[in-house]
UniProtKB/TrEMBL annotation:
This is Aldehyde dehydrogenase PuuC. Transmembrane segments: none annotated. CDD domains: ALDH_GABALDH-PuuC. Keywords: Oxidoreductase. Belongs to the aldehyde dehydrogenase family. GO terms for molecular function: aldehyde dehydrogenase [NAD(P)+] activity. It comes from Hydrogenophaga pseudoflava.
Length: 492
């Protein structure tokens, strides 16, 4: 892509409806992993900026400029917001692709569409959700109502910047809260654009603020803030644990965390369609360069079909070779930055040194000079105790393990600190259901992978986090439940 077709980006924060530099004037470089180019300077926000954003959000919440609107009014604005995301889809997709390296075709086809759909879905839902009346005696009327929690802090990672933000800001805003969003320092640009579009759609100034910057400087002050009522975090388990500590150390704000994963993908010999299982298994681990929390990174194949499975899998690998993300045909783009690329290479080295067999990939490549790229990589002969089977790599690296029967594979699959997702492939309904019930994971796919949509909850068991994104359950995170008990003195 020539320099003239790269948009110019405004890296200033968005607080109280205005684009603003950090109070102390600090910035950081926003580099593209596509080719290493400098995209823009971004505001390096810290305590004073977070204080200003939280104050703006608090003022907006207290005067009820948004929370006080009828649900049907908020719905109309949210739907307009979704339409604007869609209308700006090409720019948002190009921005996302440049900022974090994903193929532009998926940035548009998946990220933009999912973010817009999420905003629209919660907008449409909010005037259809009813509160409750308790089954009291005639001498009382008891209302159980939902109220917005207040000021919601949102901290998100870089792998699906728009979608991760939308999963939180959409239900939070639809429910009437004010939001302060801190995107990852590795991918701050689309969040800023989303907040501009929200303003254009009619979400009042101060209701949706974006502060950019590093985790310890901008994220921690948000998580520790005494005037933030709820913190919704997506990111690593390491930082997620700190978020819960910070919530407890400060005002006991509600803390919700969507964290890491090491999802088991279990293929039995009686899987109904081996080609489909192979395609979904390979496609899902390499999608988004393997930088997906729910990537099926532990593939368990029943011993009797493992050779046949791997032969088919290896034939698919060439189509996932990394290429320029800005090329509309590319399916595997760049790793988000040099730090993450080094991390992926370290795990590939550990796989080899701990005795796994490298079947494919394993090398850095340079389809675009100056960018961060690695080949799609498959290890066979992995055991559940190896580091590449235990830890989240967050890159295009598949660990292949085998098993003998259902009891064996359930034990292996559950033997991990994470519990985000899982899959089971079998034509036996009893086995499918039995294994799905036994797996300790927030979502279990049967004879598919990652085909779910906004209507179902998403989140983890164990150290994959606390709480659920998506579906009507997400409203639970951004509302308080209130009981109003009304005495009725003279029942007729
Ligand atoms: P990360 O934890 O390093 O960072 C996530 C966010 O937290 C960033 O905005 C970062 O700036 C901020 N942060 C870092 N240190 C902080 C601190 N001390 N205080 C407050 N905020 C801080 O994660 P990442 O590398 O950006 O993202 C990858 C991780 O996200 C993976 O573990 C992945 O599994 C997880 N993830 C989970 C889900 C899910 O839904 N479960 C979805 C996507 C990504």
């Amino acid at each position: 892509m020539s320099d003239t077709t790269i948009p110019s980006f405004d890296g200033r924060a968005l607080i109280d409806g205005e684009r603003v530099a950090a109070r102390d004037g600090q910035t950081f470089d926003c580099l593209s992993p596509v080719d290493g180019r400098l995209l823009t300077q971004v505001a390096r926000c810290s305590q004073a900026d977070i204080d200003a954003a939280v104050a703006a959000a608090r003022a907006a919440f207290e005067d009820r400029r948004w929370a006080g609107k009828a649900p049907a009014q908020r719905k109309r604005v949210m739907i307009r917001f979704a339409e604007l995301i869609q209308a700006n889809g090409d720019l948002l997709a190009l921005t996302e692709s440049l900022d974090m390296g994903k193929p532009v075709k998926y940035a548009k086809g998946v990220d933009v569409n999912s973010a817009a759909n999420c905003v629209r879905w919660y907008g449409e839902a909010v005037d259809k959700v009813y509160d409750e009346i308790a089954p009291t005696p005639d001498t009382a009327l008891a209302l159980i109502t939902r109220e917005p929690v207040g000021v919601v802090g949102v901290i998100v990672p870089w792998n699906y910047p728009m979608i991760m933000a939308a999963w939180k800001i959409a239900p939070a805003l639809a429910a009437g809260n004010s939001v302060v969003l801190k995107p990852s320092e590795k991918s701050p640009l689309t969040a800023l654009k989303l907040a501009e579009l929200a303003l254009e759609a009619g979400i009042p100034a101060g209701v949706f603020n974006v502060v950019t910057g590093y985790g310890p400087e901008a994220g921690s002050p948000l998580a520790l803030h005494m005037d933030v009522d709820c913190i919704a975090f997506t990111g690593s388990t390491r930082v997620g644990k700190q978020i819960h500590v910070m919530a407890g150390q400060s005002n006991l704000k509600r803390a919700w965390t969507e964290l890491g994963g090491k999802s088991p993908n279990i293929v039995f010999a009686d899987c109904p369609d081996l080609d489909k299982a192979v395609e979904a298994s390979v496609g899902s681990i390499f999608f988004n360069q393997g930088e997906s929390c729910n990537a099926p990174s532990r593939l368990f194949v029943e011993a009797s079909i493992k050779d046949a499975f791997l032969e088919k899998a290896l034939k698919l690998v060439p189509q996932y070779q990394p290429a320029n993300p800005l090329d509309k045909n590319t399916v595997m783009g760049a790793i988000v930055d040099q730090v993450q690329l080094d991390n992926v290479m370290r795990y590939i080295g550990l796989g080899q040194s701990e005795g796994a067999k490298l079947l494919a990939g394993g090398e850095r490549v340079a389809p675009v000079a100056g960018g961060c790229y690695v080949q799609p990589t498959i290890f066979d002969g992995v055991t559940n105790s190896m580091t590449i089977a235990r830890e989240e790599i967050f890159g295009p690296v598949l660990s292949v393990l085998s098993f003998t029967d259902a009891a064996d594979v359930v034990k292996q699959a559950n033997n991990n600190i994470y519990g985000l997702q899982a899959a089971v492939w079998t034509r036996d309904i009893n086995k499918a259901h039995g294994v799905a019930r036994a797996l300790r994971a927030g979502t279990v796919h049967v004879n598919s992978y990652d085909e779910d949509d906004i209507t179902v909850p998403f989140g983890g068991f164990k150290q994959s986090g606390v709480g659920r994104d998506k579906s009507l359950h997400a409203f639970d995170k951004y509302t308080e439940t209130k009981t109003t008990w009304i005495r009725i003195d003279s029942p007729v």
